[in-house]
Amino acid sequence: MAGVTSRRLNGAVLLVAPFVLVFAVFGVFPLLYTAWMSVRRWHLIDGDHGFVGLANYARLFADPDFYHALGNTVCILVVATAVQMVLSLWLAVLLDRATRGRALWCSVALLPNVVPAVAVALIFAQLFGRDYGVVNWLLKLVGAGPVNWQAHSWSAYLGVAAMVVWRWTGYNALLCLAAMQTVPRELVEAAQLDGASRWRVFRSVTLPLIRPTVSFTLLMSVVGGLQVFTEPQLFDVAGLSGTGGNDRQFQTVVMYLYEQGFGRWDAGYAATVSWSLFLLCAAFGVVNAFVFRRPRSGAGP
Amino acid sequence: MRQRRTTGLITALWTVLAIVLAGCADTGGGRVEIVVATFGEFGYEPLFTEYERLHPDIHLVGRVSDFDSHHRDLITALAVGRGAADVVAVEEQYLPRMRQVKDKFVDLATYGAGDLRPQWAPWKWEQGLAGPTVLGLGTDMGGLAMCYRRDLFAAAGLPTDRDEVAKLWPTWDGYAATADRFAERSPGAKFVDSAGTIYTAIVNQGEQNYFAKADDSFIGDTNPRIRRAFDVAAGLATRKRTAGVTTFTQPWNVAINQGAFATITCPAWMLAQIKQSGGAAGTGNWDVTSIPEGGGNWGGSFLTVPAQGAHPREAYEVARWLTAPEQQKALFLHDAILPSEPAVYHDPAVLGHTDPYFADAPVGRIFAASSDQVRPNYRGLRDADVRPKFGLALGRVEDGTQSVDAAWEQAVREARETLRWPG
Amino acid sequence: MVLLSLFPLYWSFVMATHDNSAIASPVPPLLPGGHLMANLTRMFDTVDFWAALRNSFLVAGIVSVANVLLSTMAGFAFALLRFPGRDKLFVAVVGSMLIPNQLGIIPMYLLVGALGWQDTLVAVIVPGMVSAYSVFWMRQVVREAISADLVDAARVDGCSPLRIYRHVVFPCLRPHAVVLAMLTFIASWNDFFWPLVVLDSNDTPTVQVALSRLAGGYFTDFSLLLTGVTMGTLPVVALFLLLAGRIVDGVSRGAINR
Fold this sequence. Notes:
The structure holds three protein chains of three kinds. Chain A is an all-alpha fold. Chain A has 13 helices and two strands, in the order αββαααααααααααα. Chain A folds into two domains: 2-55, no CATH class; 64-299, MetI-like (MetI-like fold, Orthogonal Bundle), CATH 1.10.3720.10. A two-stranded antiparallel ribbon of chain A has the order 1-2. Chain A is globular. By secondary structure, chain C is mainly α. Chain C has one domain: MetI-like (MetI-like fold, Orthogonal Bundle), CATH 1.10.3720.10. Chain C has 13 helices and no strands. Chain C has helices at 2-16, 36-46, 49-80, 86-96, 105-114, 122-128, 132-145, 148-156, 161-190, 193-198, 207-215, 222-242, 244-257. The interface between A and C is large, with 87 and 88 residues.
């Protein structure tokens, strides 16, 4: 018996070991190392200059640029996530009703997600160009003045959010669609027989049932939104050396991290920004789990 | 069947990995290999052949990439302590940063670079120093001139002859006044590409800018030159004389192509950019004249030897040879790369050089004259931390989102704030 | 909606068929022009695009195969096998899904440097071989598709977990594995930040690194850049269209399982 157990153990360990090994080295180690760097003065090129305690964190909490970046990130995230959720649900409903060629429509919806973020950013930055952009050209056609998209927070938020929405709406719609298809038809039909409108059926029957998926999509888009980098960075005309406009008006947290680490070579401080961002993500994950799991566990198996 | 397929996949995976790993192994040869990393167009390839002929024991390998990736690769290599080429070009803009980590480079003085000092214009030599350390040997330079559109000037009723044009702007105030005259007659085009290029030119004409030469203390807020440069440039921006396009970006290319602005401060290397953006159709539209208030320099590079290399002495020899007067002259004759050594740029071949694209302007003479007037321009150790703050401030004025005074105050505040923290 | 979804791609292609000055025309060009070949020639002159394609295929190929193998193996173990610390480990894996990608970039960079991997494709391959998301997904799939009784029975018969994996689990997971491989392939192909930091744009470019090179420099030629973007995206889009049905199915299956 003991022999069997140990053989089983060996087999199981053999199966997880490759993953765990690589994961430990390239997933966990950098995380812990970043934590260590964040309590030291660390120059990107010169390396470690010794322990500084919580000095980097004290600096971060008093750093207006960090709060500014955080504010920008949250604003972009809220706009992008809200639009994305509404559009994805709407698209999912349309796809759910489509009787013919659903696979084709699904493919078209997913296509933007295949395009690299870099390409998306370059294309959109061009579309939102001040002097020769397609968007401003369209605005001119309807009689509105050209907008200097990069110059103001609100317009830059819209531009960046547009990229995120474009890239992820189809993906999220498919997730919602899949969930919708698990909703028992009888429930929907029963509600319709009771004279409920389509909207009413969607709100009272479908939405509660697909809540776990919506919650997961929300979580993923918020976590993705907190980490948004490529889109806003390349939205800046100065590219990788840009700081999110002339007044940091659309600099996100990861852009700030990049500026500190690779622009100013202050790796210790960049690590501090990193860890703070991780804590924010984790906090959101916990809150999300708390808010969305409870009703579900109360309602069902 | 299925089993074999899975196992096959795993085997294939490790085989490929092994091949990839093996591919990275060093390939040895009898000769010492020296890798020379440059960006853009240094035109070194024919010289490599010549050097190998003179030194049969050396094998030179050129590694050319673009401006951004070149410097990023260098920084990566310095940070991880390996992977840098033996000889690496560093552009002026990155020098202040490299001075901060001068220990990562070979002090070329240890191989006798100090004796080479008289070769270069004094300001160029001093740029390559980090305190007493000789960090790099000068290659090209960016003597400042002013490029202007003859067709736009004619349309605005301004003179087009380059000497007459020079008389319009003996000073930057004269330049600003010309901008106003131009705007009255020519509402379609702007006078200058951006406030930033004018600002950079004026700042680079001074001996000190953000930091005091004496003790490296921050003087950006009190140095009258900085404030003046800021006011001149911001004044142009508030009066809408600038096209508001950031240098080297796509909108900037387009603006050149479309003739959206009439003048641009023109270091020697800018000529190639204008040609590229303007295209063949733009031949003869542009001309070159002198810049207000004497000469100046913007850009130009240096050859450095990272300390991590295996053959620093051989690398130094290569760098010394590539920057020697004979080679600088050859590069000029071949690729019109502006030398930074007075003996070379005063050579009749250089002085007599004209450029057909720029209405046959005597660019050799103009840039040589400009370089002769350059005074050494002290860059503080933290220059790279502070400099962008002022550029962004000008951008805010150009965007119309801030007043000149508010932008200035914010720039100074941000500069002071960033200096509070180690850089 | 379809129009919005396709327009940016279409527009990028259109720009790739014009020369750089067309971008500046007062009315944006909305129809293809005749400069595609010229742009392609220039692109191949500027960067070694074949090498970049080859490298990208190599990296994305190895990464996707390895990722699928490692995550199906680990997913199986997490789902149906018992070993010490299993649940704690799994919580750590799920938690790590919340970590921003850029978080560990500097330690990763030092690590890769210490291993002597920088400028080599290994530096992008090995870290890409694991993904918490894949393991999480495969664990769910295993739990749904394979009955614990079957595995227990096989173990009582003296089958080692490795054999069960080979003969029972992997064959069952194959459809999911294909989808996972595709999505991993696409993600790896599109990865930008890490390759840019760790690879050399001359010696070991991937497509994304080569693209950054088209964008870098003193001067940006946009039609050239968008030619690169179009050419760099084309292989993935083609692959995607080939397998679209399966991916669409698989992506939505992921949602059901959650």
